[in-house]
Amino acid sequence: MKSFSNKVAVITGAGSGIGRALAQELSSEGALLALSDVNLKGLEETQASLSGKSKVLITQLDVSDRSAFENYTQTVINEFGHADMLFNNAGVALSQTVENCSYDDFEWIMNINFWGVVYGTKSFLPHLLTRPEAAIINISSIFGIIALPTQSQYNAAKFAVRGFTESLRQEVKDSNLYVGCVHPGGIKTNIVVNGRMHTSMVGEQSHTQQIEEFNKMARTTPTLAAQTILKGVRKDKRRILIGQDAKFMDRLQRLFPEKYTGILSSIIKFLS
What we know:
Layout: E1 8-11, H1 17-28, E2 32-37, H2 40-49, E3 56-60, H3 66-80, E4 85-88, E5 94-95, H4 103-113, H5 115-128, E6 134-139, H6 152-171, E7 177-184, E8 196-197, H7 207-217, H8 222-234, E9 239-242, H9 244-255, H10 260-271
Parallel strand pairs: 1-2, 1-4, 2-3, 4-6, 5-8, 6-7, 7-9
Helix pairs in contact: 1-8, 3-5, 4-6
């Protein structure tokens, strides 16, 4: 997909972070936008920040609610007539050991980070397949490629998004549909602020300390992340890595598939 002008782009998690930046970039290129988030105030702030003059629909949506997502899909189709691009971007963070993680926390993150992607994909897929060209872009994480302690729940969800997306890509390879999987490294968003951060990867830390550590390590802005994603879509890239940290960790995992965890643990302790 070389041009986004007049394309109908559906973006979940558009109330902040990468979702907001994607909306801003696509708006500037003349796309029509269907924006959703569980945070209505954030959506309104996103809408107010847009520079383009194209039509924008904002909807409060909990992506973990299948019926709500299916109803939202029909709302978008009724409003715009069709959809051309779907960015399954909504996501949350959780940090806890396997032993101490509650089932409620585990189900919470899986319902949003994995099932939200499934619901979005399943709901919009039949409509996207009718378009001359279309795209599904699922946001995984570098933690969908590498695993670290206290991140088992987040790893499980993001590895699942990666596998789901790569399988879907093969199923639709002879169609009009581009399918991309995005693996961001540390992005300067509020994901840790809004997450359930019970235990740190480097030992006992308060939520405030974890936010401070994340902000030190997150070096990529949402705007740069959004620009990288859209560049990847234009080039039909199957896997889109965002940030030098993501590229480094991807290479490290490829070179040392059994030893990368020890190397990364040493780096994290050194940086903290």
